[in-house]
Write a structure and sequence with these properties.
The protein has 883 residues and is α+β, with helices and mostly antiparallel strands. It is built from 13 helices and 50 strands. Helix content is 18%, strand content 34%. It has a six-stranded mixed β-sheet with strand order 26-27-33-32-29-30, with no helix packed on it. It has a five-stranded mixed β-sheet with strand order 1-3-8-5-6. A hairpin with a 6-residue loop joins strand 43 and strand 44. Helix 4 packs across helix 5. The longest helix is centred in the C-terminal third of the chain and has 38 residues. The N terminus is likely disordered.
């Protein structure tokens, strides 16, 4: 095919440039004589004529579509002739006496030919139809370049040309010329990938040489191209040493199902057994595939068995179709049914396509037929059978004209006739109906009737069967009961005619029944016959009261109707209406009730207004305190504190609730400072009055440092001398603050105990701190019960409850500084570790070591206090110190 495409491409190229080439030839050889030929037109029939010496015939084949196959049968008797094929342009080259060999169609051209010819030739696959000429030449002229027949004698010729319609599955149909030692693959790939059972028909018309045609697989093709001598083709599907017309039809066996095949036109010596490949080979070859047309039907059942009414899918997807040989599929889903009513039940088209779905409502064997048609119009059939079984029982529904009670019984009165009916249906057909009454067959109809004179129970069974033996049954119990109705004796009933609202009345009924005992009768009293209390559709049978004798109190005056219902065990009921005129009770306390309602409304209004006024005044009081500098939380706490300390009128205004009419509000910081100052005065007895805001002032530089230390310690600051007083040295300042000081020339820090008299003898502040140590023993001898430490301590509640002591207490000795402490009331709340404490016997002076930094410290520990919480003067970590 590749070689053929190359040749066709060359021919097309030549056709495009030939006018130019011919014009050049015409200019160069304008002196040549034109060739005069007799003209003949192909009429599609056998034509016989004599071609005389030095004569030619232009056989006009007319305009032919591209790739049209022409079959030629030519007989030549006498002298040899040239058979030349041209398109329109090439023919003009010949007729103008120019060199025409370049314009020839090579494959169908035969020069100096005297034998009979039989070949097939396909016109070029051009873009549009072309006019073709077959010129029969028996002359010598300048354009033949001395080649071919040169004339001499007459020739008798007969020609028959036919057009061959291409087959739908034609793989190849054309003429090829092979040079010695060459080959050409003319078909293969998808077009020769076939289903098992398909066939390949190969026909060869040899014209020259002895070529071979080999059909091979991919692997064999590889061996062939490598020049192997074995396993190069499928022997049963090959033609060798073709020297006469040969044909071969090969059916694809199962082993080659879906295997890609190739057809090779060979003019080589290898593989052996074929033509020698030593001469040019010319041959026409036709390859036509006949795909198998064999429909296959599958179903989605198990063992091809379906139940009645089940949908069944029939699938033809396994039908061979590698060459697209299935063009149309038509299903007859039941060959026993003539669905199109044409008198033939086997040709119905119930469905089309690769699948079809059907269901069958008749049990038994059903035959399905599938008809497939190929694009060539070929038809093939397949049939398939399924068995349909009926395993579905009939559906039944039984009814009766009795009353169904809570037990499901059909209840009738004695001497009443009951009619029982059954409605049945089946997917196929109902075959039988059987009524069994108390164990006996009584009817085969769809209904039956029966009555009884005595009460009792009777069992009824209905059974319905279909043609396949499937059956369905139902049963019911018929209960025959008493039909007599109780009779109410109005004269024996005790129902008052009048009554007073709010006063109880007694209702007594009386009735009898001819069938039931009087003791079994049930009595119900409906107090409102105009209202259906139980919603059963009967407004006069509500059981508002029950019992032979009962009581009731009417709450409203007027005429009241009541209905007595008497019912026996069979449900038979007798009703009787009684009318009672109810009078109004004496009117007492009506005005009192109205007054009570009014009083309640007035009190509710007062309470709501008072609560609203109270909430508004509280909110105003909070805002007033916030305007004084308190936070909202402090303001609310103050209101709570004031309410707990004094009885507050519900009409108190906002100022009274905020305490602004008795005392000025204080912030939390001011309160804390005053609290600490009071404790300091309590501990040390200082009568010095300080500015409450002293501790909040920011001290900068050395000026004011002494006052700040004294303020934090809770003592009076050192008086300054005239002229600005004395300025403390850095070491003195550190000593007063409790800080260790390095003394030049000494390895020990300078503290209040290590500084020599000469160093600070004249310092009044340091002397004052030393003097505090002398007060420690005096403080231990005092009878104070509260704990006292330097600045910022909190005395436990138990200590604060004791009598206040006004005498001064010695200031703690600073070693290295005066710590601040507070009593511990909740040990768990302290984050500090337990501090090791060394208590001096019979003294309030306590020494301790910081659990965080290890620095030693000492302070006065008054009697009556067992544990305090104190900040380390060195590192600031809070400590818990016990005695």
């Amino acid at each position: 095919m590749a070689r053929r495409r190359q040749l066709l491409g060359l021919a097309l190229t030549f056709a495009l440039i030939s006018p130019v080439v011919l014009s050049l030839f015409a200019a160069a050889e304008s002196a040549r004589e034109s060739v005069l030929c007799n003209t003949m037109t192909w009429n599609g029939t056998l034509q016989t004529f004599t071609l005389r010496d030095d004569e030619c015939f232009d056989f006009d084949l007319g305009e032919i579509d591209p790739a049209t196959i022409l079959a030629f049968e030519i007989t030549i008797s006498g002298d040899a002739i040239d058979i030349l094929f041209f398109d329109d342009n090439g023919a003009q080259t010949y007729l103008l006496g120019q060199n025409y060999h370049l314009a020839l169609q090579i494959e169908p051209t035969f020069e100096e030919w005297s034998d009979s010819l039989s070949f097939h030739w396909s016109t070029a696959n051009s873009l549009a139809p072309k006019s073709w000429h077959m010129i029969l030449d028996n002359a010598a002229h300048s354009g033949d370049e001395g080649l071919g027949d040169q004339g001499g004698n007459n020739s008798d010729i007969s020609i028959n040309i036919t057009t061959i319609e291409r087959d739908y599955y034609e793989a190849y149909h054309d003429m090829d010329i092979l040079a010695p030692g060459s080959h050409l693959q003319i078909a293969g790939g998808d077009e020769l990938t076939l289903d098992a059972g398909s066939s390949i028909a190969i026909t060869a018309w040899p014209l020259e040489g002895e070529p071979d045609l080999y059909l091979m697989t991919d692997a064999q093709r590889s061996n062939y191209l490598l020049g192997a001598s074995a396993d190069t083709h499928i022997p049963a599907a090959s033609l060798k040493q073709i020297n006469i017309q040969q044909s071969l039809t090969w059916t694809v066996p199962q082993e080659y199902d879906g295997v890609t095949l190739h057809l090779m036109l060979d003019n080589e010596a290898v593989p052996s057994g074929g033509g020698g490949g030593s001469a040019t080979a010319r041959v026409s070859v036709s390859v036509i595939v006949n795909p198998i047309l064999s429909p296959v039907i599958e179903d989605n059942l198990v063992f091809a068995v379906a139940e009645l009414g089940d949908g069944i899918t029939f699938d033809a997807s396994d039908t061979p179709n590698r060459r697209g040989q299935i063009d149309k599929l038509e299903w007859d889903l039941d060959t026993a049914v003539d669905s199109d009513n044409d008198g033939d039940s086997t040709n119905d088209v119930d469905a089309t396509g690769w699948t079809a779905v059907a269901s069958y409502m008749t049990p038994g064997l059903h035959t399905i037929s599938l008809k497939v048609t190929s694009p060539r119009g070929e038809v093939a059939y397949a049939s398939h059978q399924v068995t349909v079984i009926d395993n579905v029982a009939p559906e039944i529904s039984m009814s009766h004209n009795g009353v169904t009670d809570s037990d499901g019984h059909a209840v009738i009165y004695h001497d009443q006739t009951i009619t029982l009916s059954v409605t049945s249906s089946d997917e196929h057909i109902v075959a039988s109906t059987r009524w069994i009454l108390d164990g006996n067959l009584v009817s085969n109809d769809s209904t039956f009737q029966r009555s009884w004179s005595e009460p009792g129970l009777h069992e009824v069974i209905i059974t319905v069967s279909d043609a396949s033996g499937n059956s369905a049954s139902d049963n019911i119990t018929v209960e025959v009961i008493d039909g007599t109705i109780p009779v109410i004796d109005r004269s024996a009933c005790s129902v008052p005619v009048t009554a007073v609202a709010g006063t109880a009345v007694t209702l007594i009924g009386a009735a009898s029944d001819s069938w039931d005992d009087d003791e079994t009768l049930r009595y119900y009293w409906d107090l409102d016959p105009l209202f259906d209390g139980d919603g059963d559709g009967d407004m006069r049978n509500d059981a508002d009261l029950s019992g032979l004798s009962t009581g009731h109190i009417f709450t409203s005056a007027g005429e009241h109707s009541i209905v007595l219902n008497v019912q026996d065990s069979a449900g038979n009921t007798h009703k009787m209406t009684f009318t009672i005129q109810v009078e109004s009770a004496p009117d007492e306390g009506g005005l009192f009730g109205i007054v009570v309602v009014i009083v309640i409304l007035v009190l509710g209004t007062i309470i709501v207004g008072t609560v609203g006024f109270h909430k508004v005044q509280e909110r105003v009081a909070v805002q007033m305190l916030m305007d004084k500098g308190m936070t909202e939380q402090e303001a609310e706490q103050r209101l709570i504190s004031i309410k707990s300390r004094q009885r507050m009128s519900i009409f108190a205004n906002a100022a009274s609730r905020a305490g602004l009419d008795s005392e000025a509000p204080k912030t939390a910081a001011q309160t804390e400072f005053e609290h600490k100052q009071a404790l300091s005065q309590q501990l040390y007895g200082s009568a010095v009055t300080q500015d409450p805001n002293l501790v909040f002032q920011a001290h900068r530089g050395r000026d004011g440092a002494e006052a700040e230390i004294a303020a934090l310690a809770g003592i009076a600051p050192v008086q300054q001398q005239a002229g600005g007083g004395r300025e403390l040295s850095e070491d003195e300042f550190a000593l007063m603050a409790g800080l260790g000081v390095d003394v030049p020339g000494s390895t020990q820090p300078l503290t209040s105990s290590s500084v020599g008299p000469t160093a600070i003898a004249e310092d009044e502040d340091i002397a004052f701190l030393r003097s505090l140590e002398s007060h420690t023993s005096a403080a231990a001898a005092s009878e104070r019960k509260s704990a006292a430490v330097s600045g910022g301590i909190e005395i436990p509640a138990s200590a604060r409850s004791t009598q206040s002591v006004t005498e001064p207490v010695a200031q703690p000795v600073a070693q290295p500084a005066s710590p601040s402490a507070e009593s511990v009331t909740d040990p768990a709340a302290s984050p500090a570790s337990e501090t090791v404490v060394e208590a001096v016997p019979e003294s309030t002076q306590v020494k301790a070591e910081c659990a965080s930094c290890g620095q030693a410290m000492a302070f006065a520990f008054p009697a009556g206090v067992e544990e305090v919480r104190i900040d380390c003067p060195s590192c600031g970590v809070e400590q818990r110190v016990g005695r």
